[in-house]
């Protein structure tokens, strides 16, 4: 197969997706890589040629890569994930509305252009978690204990460090928890749960590791995939006093602590690319990629 990966500058040296690109190449597939943030892109030619079986995006929220992916989808090319699903979760305000409207356990969400506007929220709902609606990787997420501390929560991080200046902010009531985030990854239907230190509790010692997945959290994670139309995604879950609460959804995350992550994600990308390229009438079966046992572990 021939694949096109769109990789933002922030992920230039990251294992995801660079190790996946290397794995697909080792399996004999052709992988072209475009760097939206640091190169001239022959956009019209690349998209109109239609020579790639699928386009895959690894980008920061608000980065130029999503526009390129949408351009590919607009002319009928396959994208991984589906571009409409990516747009739905990249905007955290929109994602919260969609999730709550679908009955998923998501905190009540407020939006404002300036953090000071959140002072209108009843004080009984404090502390609040304030973050950019188009933030990523836990950056610029702040815990605001009382209304008088709101102005400091609006100070954005520099753009080069992943902060977002001048964008929409969202606020949600803080969910009491142990200081440990539960990160659940979905790799084309396969679910894996891991523990990670919360960005709101940087001093809390947490050993990052894979943990058992409860039936309730598995159900919630699967519902998120169905609601948003995602195939490769991650869900941040807090185990609050009233049960699991979803506080973030990410397309094409890091998949840290997933066993054989590179091989599993690479295989999933191929399956999804083939599925999107399937003709309307039955055709010959595509050759299978090597089994996981022949690949080795994650790098």
The strand line-up of the biggest sheet is 11-10-9-12-13
- Unreliable stretches (pLDDT < 50, length at least 5) are 156-165, 279-288, 290-299
Average pLDDT, rounded to a whole number, is 85
| Rg computed from alpha carbons, rounded to a whole number of angstroms | 20 Å
Oligomeric state of the chains present here: single chain
| SS class | alpha+beta
Q: Main beta sheet: strand number and arrangement?
A: 5 strands, antiparallel
Terminal-residue CA separation = 23 Å
Query: What series of H and E elements makes up the topology?
Result: EHEHEHEHHEEEHEEEEHEEH
Helix run count: 8
Share of helix among residues?
25-40%
Tally of strands: 13
Globally, the shape reads globular
- Percentage of β-strand residues: 15-25%
Observed structural traits:
single chain; 299 residues; 5-stranded antiparallel β-sheet; 4-stranded parallel β-sheet; 27% helix; 24% strand; globular; disordered C terminus
Describe the SSE topology:
Layout: E1 2-7, H1 15-26, E2 30-34, H2 43-49, E3 54-58, H3 65-74, E4 79-80, H4 83-90, H5 92-101, E5 110-112, E6 128-132, E7 142-144, H6 150-153, E8 169-173, E9 180-187, E10 190-197, E11 209-211, H7 215-228, E12 232-240, E13 243-251, H8 261-277
Parallel strand pairs: 1-2, 1-3, 3-4
Antiparallel strand pairs: 5-8, 6-7, 6-8, 9-10, 9-12, 10-11, 12-13
How would you sum up this structure, described in words?
The chain contains eight helices and 13 strands. 39% of the residues are buried. With 299 residues, the protein is α+β, with helices and mostly antiparallel strands. 27% of the residues lie in helices and 24% in strands.
């Amino acid at each position: 197969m021939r694949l096109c990966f769109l990789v933002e500058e922030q992920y230039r040296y990251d294992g995801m997706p660079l190790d996946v690109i290397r794995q697909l190449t080792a399996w004999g597939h052709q992988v072209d890589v475009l760097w939206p943030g640091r190169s001239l892109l022959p956009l019209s030619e690349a998209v109109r040629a239609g020579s790639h079986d699928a386009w895959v995006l690894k980008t920061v929220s608000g980065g130029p890569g999503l526009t390129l992916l949408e351009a590919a989808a607009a002319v009928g090319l396959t994208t991984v994930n589906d571009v409409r699903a990516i747009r739905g979760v990249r905007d955290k305000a929109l994602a919260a509305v969609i999730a709550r409207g679908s009955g998923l356990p998501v905190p009540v969400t407020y939006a404002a252009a300036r953090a000071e506007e959140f002072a209108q929220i009843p004080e009984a709902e404090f502390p609040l978690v304030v973050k950019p609606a188009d933030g990523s990787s836990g950056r610029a997420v702040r815990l605001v204990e009382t209304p008088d501390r709101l102005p400091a929560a609006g100070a954005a991080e520099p753009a080069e460090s992943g902060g977002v200046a001048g964008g929409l902010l969202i606020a949600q009531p803080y969910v009491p928890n142990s200081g440990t985030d539960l990160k659940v990854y979905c790799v084309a239907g396969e679910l894996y749960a891991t523990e990670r230190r919360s960005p709101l509790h940087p001093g809390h010692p947490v050993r990052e590791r894979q943990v058992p997945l409860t039936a309730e959290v598995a159900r919630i994670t699967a519902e998120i995939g169905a609601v948003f139309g995602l195939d490769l995604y991650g869900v941040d879950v807090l185990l609050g006093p009233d049960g699991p609460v979803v506080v973030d959804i990410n397309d094409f995350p890091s998949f840290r602590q997933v066993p054989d992550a590179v091989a599993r994600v690479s295989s999933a990308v191929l399956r999804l690319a083939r599925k999107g390229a399937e003709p309307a009438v039955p055709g010959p079966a595509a050759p299978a990629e090597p089994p996981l046992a022949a690949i080795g572990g994650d790098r």
